[in-house]
Amino acid sequence: MAKIFEVDLKRPRIMAVAEAAATIRTGGLVLYPTETVYGLGADACLDEAVAKVFAAKARPLEDPIPVAVNSLELAQQIAELTPTAELALKKFLPGPLTLVVKAKPKKISKLLTKGEFRP
Question: Residue ranges of the YrdC-like domain (predicted)?
Answer without folding.
Answer: 14-119
